[in-house]
Design a protein that fits this description.
By secondary structure, the chain is mainly alpha-helical. It folds into two domains: about 20-95; about 100-140, no CATH class. It has five helices and no strands. It is elongated and about 105 Å long. Residues about 5-15 have low confidence and may be disordered.
Length: about 140
């Protein structure tokens, strides 16, 4: 097919009624134009087959590259994991132990942080102690 070949576009609006004879004439003209351009089932089959072959090759190459990339990533992750485990095993974790009282003291130093003592005590002691014991604990502050 040459670059200068123009295949006419036929647009039939839904509102246009085309008689069967006109449809047949139009079809015959399109078939003749296709023949003039050398477009036939065999040429379409060849193009389709070639496109299919290239698609298969591209798919295989893509799969190969993806597999290589995945393998490389897997090796990198494994190396990083091994280094991390080695680093953690070599660390002195004693220095990172948390004392609950220290955590509470540091938390209370955060601006805006407060604890409603009465609400806290009622919530913590509910179900464990009688109401009169909870009231006594709230009334008799040890602070």
């Amino acid at each position: 097919m040459s670059e200068n070949t123009v295949i006419p576009e036929v647009v039939l609006e839904e509102s246009t009624e085309v008689k069967n004879e006109e449809k047949e004439n139009l079809f015959k003209k399109l078939v003749k134009k296709a023949d003039d351009l050398g477009i036939n089932a065999e040429s379409i089959s060849k193009v389709s087959s070639t496109v299919g072959e290239y698609a298969v090759k591209a798919g295989k190459q893509t799969a190969t590259k993806a597999g290589e990339a995945a393998s490389s990533i897997s090796e990198s992750v494994q190396n990083i994991s091994e280094k991390t485990v080695t680093t953690v095993k070599g660390m002195n974790l004693e220095q990172y132990k948390l004392d609950p009282e220290d955590v509470l003291r540091k938390t209370m130093r955060i601006p805006g942080m407060s604890v409603d003592r009465e609400t806290f005590l009622r919530k913590e002691f509910r179900g464990k102690y009688a109401d009169n014991v909870i009231n006594l604990a709230i009334d008799e502050s040890v602070i």
